[in-house]
Specification:
Strand content: 15-25%
Radius of gyration: 17 Å
Strand order of the largest sheet: 3-2-1-4-5-6-7
Bound molecules: NADP nicotinamide-adenine-dinucleotide phosphate
Oligomer: single chain
Order of helices and strands: EHEHEHEHEHEHHE
CATH superfamily: NAD(P)-binding Rossmann-like Domain
CATH architecture: 3-Layer(aba) Sandwich
Structural class: alpha/beta
Length: 244
């Protein structure tokens, strides 16, 4: 298995939830993390929770909106002399409305953040990885890319797009030593799901009887980061919900 010691990881959605859990686990394995989100202060507080292994310069933050190319372009310029070994695209927003009630602004935001933001991340970071002749992309989609969900049609479309994106990337970039994989988490305890299981009805639908933990998704990301033959994996991590 490939060690993460000394690797540089760019992690969108790094301010909290799944992105931060992945950063924590990768940092504990010796990686340096660049946390990406929209708010510099929140990111700085998140970065303070990462294991530095004695190197206070190991982690850094970059505050920008992933849904437009501007921030990505600035990141590429400011990290011109830095490698990117692992790109984790975890920034995302959710939806809780039937399509006919979903505001135009929300449709645009969901697609722009979840799908287009992931596309920009890949478009801008892959050339860096091509120069290095190595790299690993971990895109965070959702079980809803392949499984029914209520009040989540636009979100599901954005996540299904990420699965298609990752499959084509795996074909395009494997020859450059770059691996591309996608995670399909089910329902995981984060801010995104905090109001979803108040009466336990959601847990009751899940074969393992509970929502997942961010640390459990991070563990799946670690597998994808470390296994040199993991390429074009579409990895469910959903407590068995995909079987229902
Ligand atoms: N939790 C689940 O059950 C679950 C299940 C399946 C898939 N997922 C997916 O996993 C990913 C992480 O979800 P989560 O549960 O960790 O959600 P979360 O706790 O709500 O965190 C969302 C993250 O995305 C960042 N973000 C949102 N919009 C952004 C933008 N335009 N530009 C930059 N950063 C942005 C947020 O940062 P700021 O707000 O600080 O900018 C935050 O770090 C998402 O893609 C989500 O769709 C989650």
């Amino acid at each position: 298995m490939q060690s993460l010691a000394g690797k540089r990881c760019f992690i969108t959605g790094g301010s909290r939830g799944l992105g931060l859990a992945i950063a924590r686990l990768f940092a504990a394995q010796g990686a340096g993390c660049t946390l990406i989100g929209r708010n510099e202060d929140t990111l700085a507080k998140a970065a303070d929770t990462l294991d530095t292994q004695g190197d206070l310069q190991r982690h850094c933050v970059s505050a920008f909106d992933v849904s437009t190319p501007d921030g990505w372009e600035k990141l590429v310029v400011s990290t011109k002399n830095q490698v990117c070994d692992i790109l984790v695209n975890a920034a995302g927003v959710s939806q809780n409305s039937f399509i006919f009630k979903t505001e135009k602004h929300d449709v645009n935001e969901i697609i722009a953040t979840n799908l287009t933001g992931t596309i920009w991340g890949c478009k801008y970071i892959i050339p860096k990885m091509m120069k290095q002749k190595s790299g690993c992309i971990i895109n965070v989609a959702s079980l809803l890319a392949t499984h029914r969900g209520k009040g989540a049609s636009v979100y599901a479309a954005s996540k299904a797009g990420i699965v298609g994106l990752t499959r084509s990337l795996a074909w395009e970039v494997g020859r450059f030593g770059i691996r591309a994989n996608v995670l399909l988490p089910g329902y995981i305890k984060t801010d995104m799901t905090k109001d979803m299981d108040q009466n336990g009805e959601l847990s009751a639908l899940i074969p393992l009887g509970r929502l997942g933990l961010a640390r459990e998704v991070a563990d799946a990301a670690l597998f994808l980061a470390q296994n040199p033959y993991a390429h074009n994996c579409v990895l469910n991590i959903d407590g068995g919900l995909s079987a229902t």
